[in-house]
Design a protein that fits this description.
mainly beta, 1 helix, 31% strand, globular
């Protein structure tokens, strides 16, 4: 691998702020096809789960994901969504309130 200079990118911080006003949608179960070899949901699958509540992909210029806890096969996930003018946030959490991942998309 060659060493390339880092891309010039805006520093966004590590944490994603969760908006106070969220709309919850019906829970769904984690499927076997979403599980990796460690028995957890594959990180890319959290983004796929959140896609239903995000703007069309061609309208997204910045996407950030914060992974907090690993979901497993059969866990119930409740999507909690905030749709703002300049930012959409999808919080994927368990029925007990544990947050699995937070996905933030900006135009």
């Amino acid at each position: 691998y060659g060493e390339e200079p880092p891309l010039s990118m805006e520093e966004m911080g590590r944490k994603i702020r969760i908006p106070e006003e969220l709309t919850e949608y019906p829970a769904f179960s984690v499927r076997k096809s979403q599980i990796d070899t460690n028995g957890h949901v594959n990180n890319a699958k959290y983004v796929e789960m959140a896609e239903e509540w995000l703007p069309e992909p061609n309208g997204i210029r910045k996407l950030r994901v914060a992974y907090q806890h690993a979901a497993r096969y059969g866990d119930q996930i409740i999507p909690a969504v905030h749709r703002g003018a300049d930012c959409h946030t999808v919080v994927l959490k368990g029925v007990e309130g544990r947050i699995y991942a937070v996905v933030e998309a900006k135009p």
